[in-house]
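User: I'm putting together a teaching handout on how sequence relates to shape, and I'd like one worked example. Could you take Glycosyl transferase family 1 domain-containing protein from Phytohabitans houttuyneae, show the sequence you're using, and then write out its predicted structure as tokens right after it?

Assistant: Happy to. First the sequence, then the structure tokens directly below it.
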Amino acid sequence: MLGRLAPVDLVHLTHFSRTGLAFLDQPPLRHVPLVATLTDYTAVCADYQMVHRRTGDECAAPVPAEDCANCLATHPDGAAPSAAEVAGWRHRNLRLLNDRCRAVWVQTPHQGRVLVRAGLRKSLIVRDRAEYDIPAHWGPAPRSAPVVLFVGRASPEKGLHVLLEAFRQWAGAARLVVVTSADDPAYEARLRERAAADPRVEWRPPLRRGDLGALLAGAGALAVPSQWPENYPMVVHYARALGVPVVCSSVPSMEHLGQRDGVWLVDRRDDPRAWVDALDAVLSGPAGAREDRTGQFRAAYKQFVDEIAGVYATVLAGR
């Protein structure tokens, strides 16, 4: 299949699965300059999240290959590579990135530090903050009836179970609107059954990106109860642009936002009571029109795109 590609001047790698980067060694890509946007830890973690599935503990890079193989043996799809296979896969990824890559974009400072500790050359990282485009028709809206919004994959590391338990304990009148995409069917089925007993919880099917603006703009808060070092979800960027308060787990990868720009960090991220307290504090704030920062965010995205184009030009000029 790769042999049928037209001549390639530059490869921008934006995502790859645990199958790794072996395709970059195949013609016609073997000698093509490479740049990469790394959105998670897949380059060094075959499970992408740097969290041990059995224990729930965050991994400290570099992780022994034996620990990785042990973790992957508990993966829902039954994958169970040997430690030697994990070590070879990770070595190949780092070799290709360090030897072939000219620039790397990461999503957060924490992600960058983890990847460097795992073996990525620090000098490759050209930016450690993500930017996303804001659709032109999006804008802020007055706060309506209190609504807490969850948007994300239905999987344990996203922490929806913690948020549902907080709602169960909470006496507040706000509704919880849950928008999930399929990921772990058994997990989602259990949570849907649990949520069915609470009339304040409304579960909606996945939305197209362009339809998120209206839902976000009318929300009282966006909840991000992640139990892994989340790498700046797109929906958080959208909420900040629209002035929607973000109540987020205080995972290391989100700490650079601090308690500012409408982001509230929850230190005890696995404790439903901590989420109850945070929601009380955020939703008791004054209602009214939201701060319109969409123009500022669009300008930042344009600058980001210009920076990428500049890197392309530099790489191609030096090839």
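A couple of points you could highlight for students: The chain has two domains: 2-129, 147-292. The longest strand covers residues 147-153.
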